[in-house]
From TrEMBL:
KW Iron-sulfur (keyword) present: no
UniProt name for this protein: Isopenicillin-N N-acyltransferase-like protein
Alphabetized UniProt keyword annotations: Acyltransferase, Transferase
Domain Peptidase C45 hydrolase per the UniProt entry, residue ranges: 120-301
Taxonomy, superkingdom: Bacteria
Keyword Transferase attributed: yes
Gene Ontology terms, MF aspect: acyltransferase activity
Length: 354
């Protein structure tokens, strides 16, 4: 099983978006429908969702006009209004506005060895009714600079790499400062980092420039550097690797100041168990073989930290979580290696190189 792939031929943002929207119209519309169901179960009205989408589009246009143009192009190709494409890009912001908190989510590990390229892996957990949303997208935002991203249909980026030698992992966070006054979508921050940054410092500067309303952590990685960039309306913090070159993150703030406003872990403390599991398996997560690193993430609840998630079908859809992908960055090649599903399904043959 593999994720669908799309390679853009257009370099103009609006034309690139329209090409994507035209080719993936059904998948984008289905993703929008799935998020509509999620927002409704969480308590949002259609009028609220539209207002949040329109505000996200305005904030995006002020911060990154070319990315707003690209969303408008996707809308044109998919037969949607631009605010509807902004909704799927701002899904983190809308969930923060609804004050929706879930127990699932992602676990990321990065190890910078003394010799050889970074050794990274993450699980990407999300709602099981959205399991058909992910896709792999290759684009060229400027001549000679290629971006490859694992994302959701209609969303401008998520986890990815660029040919400047930088990659990003992505985890959601929650903070007391999160607000319904929608800001720049965090997914657009990831995309702009992939489009523009070649260093961790440049990635952090881009994150600091965005007025946000919701929290996430983008872990930026280069050949010899890494940092978890914790983003919140309360500020941006940069977490470096430990002295051994290890950097791991789940779904709670590690910066002491931002942690004072922690929301996710106060209601769902399993994130601490997942990070503890990563800490306890550093040796395996340092393995040069991605398959071995993925298997080190294999842990199911309740006997261990639920790093590999499976949905409880007795729960409403906003409380059902599944590890939909396991992903590693191949920075020397500027490629992603992606497995569809959780670590418990990984074999040498299940990796998709993109």
């Amino acid at each position: 099983m593999t994720f669908p792939c799309f390679t853009s031929s257009q370099t103009d943002p609006r034309a690139r978006g329209k090409e994507l929207g035209t080719h993936l119209r059904k998948r984008i519309v289905a993703n929008l429908t799935g998020y509509g169901e999620l927002f409704a179960v969480a308590g949002a009205t259609p009028e609220q969702v539209r207002a949040w989408g329109e505000r996200a589009l305005d904030r995006s246009a002020a911060w990154a006009p070319s990315l707003a143009d690209e969303m408008a192009g996707i809308a044109a190709g998919a037969g949607l209004d631009p605010w509807q494409v902004a909704v799927v890009n701002a899904r983190t912001e809308i969930l923060a506005g609804i004050d929706a908190v879930g127990h699932g989510e992602c676990s990321t590990s990065v190890v910078l060895p003394q010799d050889g390229p970074p050794r990274t892996v993450q699980t990407w957990d999300w709602h099981d009714h959205l399991r058909d949303a992910p896709m792999l997208w290759e684009l060229e935002p400027r001549p000679g600079h290629v971006v490859r991203t694992f994302t959701e249909a209609g969303v401008l980026a998520k986890i990815g790499v660029n040919t400047a030698g930088l990659g990003v992992h992505f985890n959601i966070l929650r903070h007391d400062a999160d607000t319904a006054e929608t800001g720049v979508p965090v997914h657009l921050i990831a995309r702009r980092i992939l489009d523009e940054a070649a260093t961790v410092e440049q990635a952090a500067d881009i994150a600091r420039s965005a007025p946000v309303s919701a929290s996430s952590v983008i872990t930026a990685v280069t050949a010899d550097d890494a940092a978890s960039i914790e983003i919140s309306p309360a500020g941006v913090a940069v977490i470096p690797p430990d002295p051994g070159g290890v950097l791991q993150h789940c779904n709670h703030f590690l910066d002491a100041d931002l942690a004072a406003g922690e929301r996710h872990a106060t209601e769902r403390p399993g994130t601490y168990d997942r990070l503890r599991h990563l800490h306890e398996h550093v040796e395996e997560l340092s393995d040069p073989d991605l398959n071995a690193r993925a298997l080190a993430m294999l842990a199911h609840a309740p006997g261990a930290a639920p790093v590999c998630a499976h949905p409880d079908l007795t729960q409403p859809l906003n409380q059902r979580w599944e590890t939909l992908a396991t992903i590693g960055l191949d920075l020397p090649a500027g490629r992603l290696r992606v497995h569809q599903g959780g670590p418990c399904q990984v074999t040498e043959a299940t990796w998709q190189t993109f």
